[in-house]
Amino acid sequence: MSKSIKVVVTGAAGQIAYSLIPRLVDGKTFGDKIVNLALVEIPQVVDKLEGLVMELEDSYFPNMGEVTYTDNFEEASKDADWFLLVGSIPRGIVYNGKKIEERSDLLSINGGIFVDQGIAIGRYGKKNAKILVVGNPANTNAFIGKHAANNDSQLWMAMTMLDANRAKSILAKKTNNNVSDIKNMIIWGNHSPTMYPDSENVQILGELGSSVINDINWVESDFIPKVQQRGKAVIDARGASSATSAAKAAIDTVIACENPTDPGDCFSAAIASDGSYDVPKGIICGYPLMTLEDGSIEIKRDISLSEFAKNKFQISIDELLSEREAVKHLMQ
Ligand code: NAX
């Protein structure tokens, strides 16, 4: 009999989740494992999930196990292997009578949510649970959640795979290659407009990006800002934020964690710094990661950063430190 796995998804009635959830049970993301889903929403919209569950049933996914939905995160957390934390309060909405426009307000409100979710995950999630935070501000939400969980055997990540996929797509076009020819794509720092997408250490058909591209003006004035601002460009064009590409990136992250990384490659996600690359310990920072044969996930440590790269990366580290400062009242 196939093994089973339990996956919790928050924000399950939102637009990313609508693309994401079917792919969790399609028999590809978790191989032949039976996937039990626990879908979580806020009380105001949780009933809508009945419709999603009906659609999942009607789709007939052979690998779909039990599907439950709830507004009770603690209940959903019990013995879960994976947590995809997509739900968060977006900028621009009115929350408790106030329009949420400042990043500091966003940090504070979502931070509060992640304290409670972190406590539940630490207490009720599996010992080796993996947590991927998608809801923004993703790195700092993960930082708060990890602190609240207080369970170091679990792995907290914030999603930067979408940024890596965007960067690969731009580099593939620039160099007339396939996206699959681009490896070792690293997003350093914060999932925000300060992120540093690394065009120097990327491998294009096995050659270092620094020698293939060799056009610092294009890198600085075109490539980096395009990756940093791609989310906004999608919003401007679509009238809504990235959804299907964000769902694909979350799936790519799960697959990258569930399977050993090919030698010479890495994948992008933000995890707690252990001091690697001189990043202050504890902040959730975008790094090059590898999944080893035993399933453990490690930072790839042999990347060399140019002075140009170090300067760009430092801007994002400084932003993460200022976000940490803004939420210190939540770190009891
Ligand atoms: P939607 O507004 O469509 O859906 C979010 C859902 O989360 C809503 O249904 C809401 O009711 C629910 N929710 C809010 N608080 C919750 C809580 N405490 N527990 C459970 N559910 C809760 O947003 P969507 O487009 O799906 O985006 C979700 C999040 O992803 C946003 O924060 C967005 O900024 C973030 N993104 C992150 C990306 C990344 O690369 N890390 C890229 C895409 C996206 O912008």
UniProtKB/TrEMBL annotation:
Q: Where is the Lactate/malate dehydrogenase C-terminal domain?
A: 160-329
Locate the Lactate/malate dehydrogenase N-terminal domain: which residues?
Answer: 5-152
Root EC class: oxidoreductase
Describe its function.
Catalyzes the reversible oxidation of malate to oxaloacetate.
What would be an example GO MF term here? L-malate dehydrogenase (NAD+) activity
Binding-site list for NAD(+) = N110, V134, G135, N136
The record's keywords, sorted A to Z, are: NAD, Oxidoreductase, Tricarboxylic acid cycle
Listed Gene3D superfamilies: Lactate dehydrogenase/glycoside hydrolase, family 4, C-terminal (3.90.110.10), NAD(P)-binding Rossmann-like Domain (3.40.50.720)
Q: What is this protein called?
A: Malate dehydrogenase
Binding annotation for substrate: R91, R103, N136, R166
Q: Which InterPro entries match?
A: L-lactate/malate_DH, Lactate/malate_DH_C, Lactate/malate_DH_N, Lactate_DH/Glyco_Ohase_4_C, Malate_DH_AS, Malate_DH_type2, NAD(P)-bd_dom_sf
Catalytic function, reaction form = (S)-malate + NAD(+) = oxaloacetate + NADH + H(+)
Biological processes annotated in GO:
malate metabolic process; tricarboxylic acid cycle
* Stated family: Belongs to the LDH/MDH superfamily. MDH type 2 family.
- NCBIfam families attached here? MalateDH-SF1 (TIGR01759), PRK05442.1 (NF003916)
Signal sequence segment: none
Task: Reply yes or no: does the keyword Oxidoreductase apply.
Answer: yes
Q: Which domain of life is it from?
A: Bacteria
This entry's Enzyme Commission designation comes to 1.1.1.37
Active-site residues?
H191 (proton acceptor)
PROSITE patterns the UniProt entry points to: MDH
